[in-house]
Amino acid sequence: MKKILLGCIADDFTGATDLANNLVRSGMRVVQTIGVPATPLDAEVDAVVVSLKSRTIAPGEAAAQSVKALEWLQAQGAQQIYFKYCSTFDSTAQGNIGPVTDALMAAMGVDFTIATPAFPDAGRTVFKGYLFVGDVLLHESGMQDHPLTPMTDPNLVRVLQAQTKHKVGLIDYKVIGQGAQAIGERMTSLREQGVGIAIVDAVSNADLVVLGAALKNMPLVTAGSGVAIGLPGNFGIAPNPESAALPKATGLKAIVSGSCSRATNLQVADFVARGLPAFVLDPLSLLSGDAAVLDALKWAESRLAAGPVLIYSTAAPEALKRIQDQLGVQQAGELVEQALASIAKGLVALGVGQLVVAGGETSGAVVQALGMHQLQIGAQIDPGVPWCAANGMHITLKSGNFGTPDFFTKAFDHIA
Ligand code: ADP
Description:
alpha/beta; 36% helix; 18 strands; 22% strand
């Protein structure tokens, strides 16, 4: 088995896919694993992204899971480790970006690393250590009201300093503008001043590429998914179509949608407006056992041969709120997720080999029900949403707000 070059640890599932997608676009062949695998890797790839669900769990637990992922990646030969977090630096006052970075640094015996969530393609830029989301600062972007990780301070040096035992410094845009050698010199001087983690400015892809070159010999990198575009070059890898190659797609086509995000509502409406077969799942019908699941599968069975079918619980905000008031947010969510996961399993048993799943949490439930542990990452359909191959079939996991309105038909054309 060939050793991997880059080993990545992501603090959530769709964030892991986002990183994997950027690496594939930069020429690396990539597998994403769900959690830390219990066995060695069984694919020949350049990078592996281990996806954890560690963004908002207790800091000690996040650190322990991340170190376990590190050890597995090191056992697969990883030459460089990449800790990936959200491009809005999602964290609480306690972590988990700081505590996980500290734990990885200790486990690897390194005394210096960088941190930057910059991802200019997605509108995330860092200037003088301040994080912008589009045209506004982080704490004016809506992230100040996030239910789990409210971000009220856009100064990343301050934010990270509150979470780590290392001294935090800054490599600013002026140094980035002077090129990789100047960045290297700045790192050396920060290190001499006792800085352990440097926030790095980047406002363009060109900045990330220059930064990438300066990270060539850094054992541990921490960042959003943006920095990934600058790293494959250090291993002599350039963008190439083979990196996204997947086996030929076969089997019947279906879409399962449990996302109620705006983009998904538009995608469901577009599919229905085309006159294509769509079955709406009523959450209340799920209270009385699995009859509704069986109904959905029976409906699908007679239609699958003619082309893609859609089974969805996707609802507009008012309808969603009515159900949530009736059942409770948590119970409604779990009920629908489990039903859609059972439906996905049933569809695969009926011969579906090309499956689109809409919704982040829904995707988690479906992947678990299908027993998928490793996803080979293919070409992107829309930014951040690639086709993947796993367990002998093709699947794409679309988080709520991603994708154009025609996504549910476009996705299949993409692998035809
Ligand atoms: P997104 O990526 O758009 O946030 P998720 O799948 O992560 O989508 O989350 C949507 C949540 O809403 C899931 O828990 C899902 O089970 C739940 N849900 C979906 N449809 C309905 C509905 N009609 N009523 C209540 N809850 C729903």
